[in-house]
Amino acid sequence: MTDTLGQVPYGTIRNPFNYDKFEQISRDLTTNWLTIDEIAQQLNLGTDESQDAYLESLELAVRMHIEDYLGMSIFPTSYRVYYGLSANFSTPVYLDLPVTSYVDKFNNGNLSITKVAYYNGSTPSVLTTIASTDYYYDSTGNKVVLNSGIPSDVSTYRTSPVIVEYTQNANFTQAYPVIKQAGLLLFTHLYNNRSESVAGGLQKIPYGVDCLLRPYKPLVM
Questions:
Q1: Which strands sit side by side in the sheet containing 135-138, from one edge to the other?
Q2: What is the pLDDT of residues 45-64, one digit of tens each?
């Protein structure tokens, strides 16, 4: 919707993509990214192994923060995306995937479509999987393309009856020294500031972390 000058009115929400919402459905919460040897060297712990369990748990928090900050999968992460029918009447149908990930800037196409499905018009509605031969992933536009459109028996009373599930695979840039160094800097900060009970409260996260990661953070348009 625009005014007579072709401008979007104040307060109008403009979403250029045709998905309604998306959610994270699976994430690696056990595998360490930074090794104990790398951490021990960073903290000058030498051969002291008494804190290894704590260091591994803290490392997971650091790794998840780096992933969330950059939108980058250090290890595979899976998502589910929901679509309504209002923008999907054409054939073929193009289903946009969320442009929130590191894959868009550095590793386009580094994802796998695991399911495309829809809720049919039965009562109760049943989630029906679409055959993999009836769609494909177009990495040039970061879209799932349904060759024959949405099946005719799709539910018309569900808000978002079409779903796509995909896995964002591990990104090759997670091994870049600059990114791993940012992880080690953040790790050191959290290790040295374990609670707000320290004098003066927690220190701010060091500028070096943001400085190292900023060039790799996707722009929000």
A1: 93-96, 143-146, 135-138
A2: 888 888 999 999 999 999 99
**Over the stretch 122-177, which tens digit does the pLDDT of each residue have?**
999 999 999 999 999 998 888 999 999 899 999 999 999 999 999 988 888 888 99
Burial group, residue 29, by CB count within 10 angstroms (0-12, 13-18, 19+): exposed
Cis ω on the peptide bond leading into residue 206 (within 30° of 0)? no
For residues 87 and 156, membership in a common domain is answered with yes
Task: Tell me the CA end-to-end span of the chain in Å, nearest whole number.
Answer: 19
User: How far is the C-alpha of 210 from the C-alpha of 221, rounded, in Å?
Assistant: 20
For 217, which DSSP code? S
Distance CA 59, CA 32 (A): 7
Domain identity same for 113 and 87 = yes
Percent of the chain with pLDDT over 70: 81
pLDDT digits (tens, 9 = 90+) for 23-44: 999 999 999 999 999 999 999 9
Is the whole model's pTM more than 0.70, yes or no?
A: yes
Distance between CA 51 and CA 170 in Å, rounded?
28
195/186 Cα distance (integer angstroms): 15
Parallel, antiparallel or unpaired: strands 93-96 and 143-146: antiparallel
> How deeply is 81 buried, as exposed, middle or buried, from its count of CB atoms within 10 A (0-12, 13-18, 19+)?
buried
Domain limits at 50?
A: 30-74+176-216
